[in-house]
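INFO  loader      accepted 1 record
INFO  loader      residues=308
INFO  predictor   begin
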Amino acid sequence: MSEHGIHHVTAYAGPAQRNIDFYTQVLGLRLVKKTVNFDDPGTYHLYYGDESGRPGTILTFFPFDHAAPGRVGVGETQETAFRVPRASIGWWTHRLVAKGVPHEAVAHAFGDPVLRLRDPDGTMLALVGVEDAEESTHAGGEVPPEHAIRGFHGVTLLLGASEKTAAILTGVLGFHEAARDGSSIRFASGAAQGGFVTLKAVGGFLSGRPGAGSVHHVAFRAADDAAQEAMAKALVETHGLAVTEQRDRQYFRSIYFREPGGVLFEIATDEPGFTIDEPVETLGRALKLPPFLEAHRAQIEDVLPKVA
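INFO  predictor   done
INFO  writer      dumping tokens
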């Protein structure tokens, strides 16, 4: 039985190799899938997560060598947060200093210590210290297992107003309101990884601009096609939203919609997962293409930048 919660988050980035180096070496995530944007196969689609790429641990990127910078604003994801053991916040602070990663002093939100940082493209990230963190399933890039990232904590969405978005979270996506802190409202799903969405209403702030460092969409979990279909029906019939047809993304099946606050949401099935075309032991090493692009492999590989 699937848990509700975040399935993955997808963002734009600059050069692919720089992106790989930061997320695998500095943050210690695993590159679990190296494929292409199925809608634009001249561009990589890189997936990072835990050892097997479980839903709730996956941050993905569309990297472009000469991407213009984006701007975070209303109608976008302001921050993507990962879970780490609470006792590891100090270790991570020292690591970010040693690696020259831009970051803020440790703050607190909803009672948890939060270490905010930016990746090389300016993507706003956070490490949230949690009690009773489960054992790490992957530690790399000089990050020891006891300090390793344990999947997503959640995302913060910047909105003009939060009421209609809140109704989607609670009425369709399996979340409930859990806490309030100033203008921020936190919703929880109960999932260990990716269990929180925080809505921050800021009124007439500048709208966001897509580009390197900005989030393209947030994907939420559906156990299977039937669960996804039920969510789509609720979005259309109860909330009056337009929803795309299902699209096969090889490792999950997806539908998309623009939630009332302007953020692009996806609902992705937990199945079949990232081991459908390669075993856990070798995830992320080879370029994997869906069957409809395999005949074009030579041309695609010729266009993509070389990465280690």
